[in-house]
Design goal:
Shape: globular
Distance between the termini: 29 Å
Radius of gyration: 22 Å
Order of helices and strands: HHHHHHHHHHHHHHHHHH
Strand content: under 5%
Length: 467
């Protein structure tokens, strides 16, 4: 592996290593946040609440595509990082090729499926009659560009596995900035509304995909799309998908939960859906910052686990706890201070905007503490504990949340829908911390053993060299 890319993993300055990995990854996640907000912000400038609600209703479809991307990239990132830590370059290349070809195939399948079942899908998503046509137009265009959306989001994450955090960030920036430039042109100047928003999104992802392909052809250490590597062991894709399942389950179930929430909100009208969507987007500022920190540091945890370095692994985790707690507090204060101005970017109707503010204040009860949840999930993935990570992800967005939505809406009405997210978050935080502590105790023994084996092998090699 190239020295300039591996150096960040092997440095003894843990804070420096963490910031080198987390910094660009955090910028990338914020870019993704802006990217996710861009369509709704510019659509909101039309002053049509129905179009804002349409973007929200179709959101779970985008979550579906993101879930598939994270399913592949989550496992690929962990395995490639661990392979590089263990100096198994050929296996890392095989994993890389499998990730890319699986993304291409599943991107096409996802797009075709969404287009084929668009009518019943919109009904399930909670589209009301006044927003149905807007939602259909937006969804069909995104579905047509699904292969590019999937490949771009997958590669943007997997690049981090070989230390190419800067290139991953550049790709994200290219796609996002192009989307932001095209949004006002298509949505406002050409008066295309949600259609223009969807077209801008697809074009941005197409250009980002081209950049990532260029990187692979000119600079990549192990990333490649050579079919020969993928065909060496195609069945291994199931191991990749198993490790990526926790992040994918979280994203996919989040989409389902939002669909159920929109179904419940539809009886309160499209204004309620729009207010809820705006509050959710603003709350993402806190959530995605904490997620970005933990995801950015995951390759560092994976590398040290693969190398059998228990001391560094523990040091990274301790520093991440400090970082997520401090960042959670700071971002919460910032969001509270700027909530009115930020919500105004999405909603022009002051009544609906006021409703969105009240929803946001409920959401922020649990959001600052989600760093513990994301740290535990990424730690379990780094240690290869895919099943445990999947279980806690499913608890947060499915087992705890979906029943809570229906129960609390029945008891408390409109406000109960968002309170359900708070209840599910705290439940998942507590359970994930328990899982993390239990698995850490087990992994201590395993990594001690791995380190001892490597030390014995190293001594034997040196003795053999002397002889």
């Amino acid at each position: 592996m190239k020295n300039e890319q591996i150096r960040v993993f092997e440095s003894d300055n843990l804070w420096k290593s963490i910031f080198k990995m987390v910094g660009p990854a955090l910028i990338a996640i914020l870019v993704m946040l802006i990217y996710n907000m861009a369509d709704m912000i510019f659509v909101g400038q039309t002053g049509e609440t129905a179009q804002v609600a349409a973007v929200s209703v179709v959101g779970p479809v985008f979550n579906l595509i993101m879930a598939v991307a994270m399913l592949i990239s989550g496992g690929g990132t962990v395995l490639i990082s661990r392979d590089l830590g263990a100096k198994d370059i050929n296996h890392a290349k095989m994993v890389s090729s499998l990730c890319i070809w699986t993304s291409i195939i599943l991107g096409i399948v996802a797009g075709v499926l969404i287009i084929a079942i668009n009518k019943p899908l919109l009904s399930f998503l909670g589209a009301t009659p006044d927003i149905e046509e807007f939602a259909k137009q937006y969804m069909l265009i995104l579905a047509a560009g699904a292969p590019f959306l999937l490949i771009t989001n997958m590669l943007g994450q997997v690049l981090r596995a070989e230390g190419a955090v800067k290139e991953g960030l550049v790709g994200n920036l290219i796609g996002t900035m192009l989307n932001i430039v095209l949004d006002p042109i298509f949505i406002l100047k050409l008066n295309m509304g949600v259609v223009g928003a969807a077209i801008a999104t697809v074009i941005g992802n197409m250009v980002a995909t081209i950049y990532y392909v260029h990187y692979m052809r000119t600079k990549a250490v192990v990333l490649n799309a050579k079919p020969g590597y993928a065909l060496k062991n195609p069945i291994f894709i199931f191991s990749i998908l198993a490790l990526g399942l926790p992040n994918a389950v979280s994203t996919l179930l989040s989409g389902f939960a939002n669909s159920f929430a929109n179904q419940l909100l539809s009886k309160y009208g499209s204004d309620a859906i729009a207010a809820n969507a705006a509050a959710g987007r603003v709350n993402l500022i806190i959530v995605m910052v904490l997620m970005g920190i933990c995801m950015g540091a995951q390759p560092l945890m994976s590398y040290n686990y693969g190398a059998g370095n228990k001391k560094k692994l523990g040091g990274v985790i301790k520093r991440l706890i400090v970082l997520t707690v401090g960042t959670g507090a700071i971002t919460t204060v910032a969001v509270i201070a700027m909530r009115t101005s930020v919500i105004a970017l999405f909603l022009k109707d002051t009544t609906v905007a006021t409703q969105a503010e009240s929803i946001l204040m409920i959401l922020m009860i649990s959001s600052p503490f989600l760093g513990f949840f994301y740290l535990a999930t990424n730690f379990l993935q780094a240690a290869g504990k895919a099943m445990q990570a999947t279980i806690i992800s499913a608890l947060q967005k499915g087992v705890l949340l979906i029943p809570a939505l229906f129960v609390l809406e029945y008891i408390l009405g409109f406000s109960g829908i968002r309170l359900a997210y708070v209840v599910a978050d705290f439940g998942a935080i507590i359970i994930s911390c328990i899982f993390m502590i239990v698995e850490w105790n087990k992994i201590n023994v395993n990594t001690d053993y791995l380190g001892a084996v490597k030390e014995i092998v190293s001594k034997k090699d040196k003795q053999a060299a002397v002889i």
